[in-house]
User: Which sequence fits this backbone?
């Protein structure tokens, strides 16, 4: 992008909203680091810790607006980033937040720890996909820990062992797994689910995942409770974000 065109693009965005925060008084709104323009190629880079922090603080804010008093654990508790108590009911939830930077197809770095099942019926994930512009609302997927553990494992192991792929082309272990947002599409902004025990939440993963959960090639994590009693999937909706192959049992 030429400098003149870049300055014009950044100026238009700045005039429509506010002066670029990255500009000095002498150059505003002609800064080469204008975060107001999504097309600007000189936007500030955000490191992983700031991405994590952005997601966690946003979740705390959302919980507060829904009547939950939340507190960040500041890495003090394994598996839990936020402890929250509902001010009306006294219900306690433990929330682990995974945050992904803006992308057309957000992926969450879940890894092997994402396959570890819950120890109680109040453990949750909130998967946050940040918006492109800082002040726009993110997408958030509110999912019981056991559902995440199953979804992460099934998706990765099917990808890893897919018989149509030549042997040796896929070698990434579960430790390096990244989980696409579409897997949990039906949990998007389901904050209401937090008000019930996780064991009472309907499974809203793609239908094909239930078939793979019973396939020896894919299955479930060894210590997952669904190995003993696989629940029915809620099939009330075929989500528009699911690939066609994931919609078939």
Assistant:
């Amino acid at each position: 992008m030429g400098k003149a065109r870049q300055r014009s693009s950044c100026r238009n965005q700045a005039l429509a909203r506010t002066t670029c925060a990255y500009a000095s008084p002498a150059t505003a709104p002609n800064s080469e680091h204008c975060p107001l323009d999504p097309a600007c190629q000189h936007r500030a880079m955000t490191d992983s810790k700031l991405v994590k922090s952005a997601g966690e603080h946003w979740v705390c804010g959302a919980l507060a607006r829904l009547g939950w008093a939340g507190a960040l654990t500041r890495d003090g508790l394994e598996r839990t980033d936020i402890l929250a108590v509902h001010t009306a009911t006294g219900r306690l939830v433990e929330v682990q937040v995974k945050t992904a930077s803006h992308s057309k197809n957000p992926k969450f770095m879940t890894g092997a720890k994402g396959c570890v099942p819950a120890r109680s019926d109040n453990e949750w994930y909130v998967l946050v996909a940040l918006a492109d512009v800082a002040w726009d609302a993110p997408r958030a997927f509110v999912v019981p820990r056991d559902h995440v553990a199953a979804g992460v494992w099934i998706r990765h192991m099917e990808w890893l062992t897919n018989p149509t792929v030549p042997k040796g082309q896929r070698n990434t272990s579960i430790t390096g797994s990244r989980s696409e947002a579409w897997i949990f599409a039906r949990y998007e902004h389901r904050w209401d689910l937090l008000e019930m025990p996780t064991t009472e939440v309907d499974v809203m993963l793609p239908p094909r995942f239930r078939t793979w959960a019973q396939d020896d090639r894919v299955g479930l994590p060894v210590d997952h409770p669904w190995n003993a009693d696989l629940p029915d999937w809620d099939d009330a909706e075929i989500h528009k974000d699911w690939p066609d192959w994931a919609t078939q049992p």
Summary: The longest strand covers residues 68-77.
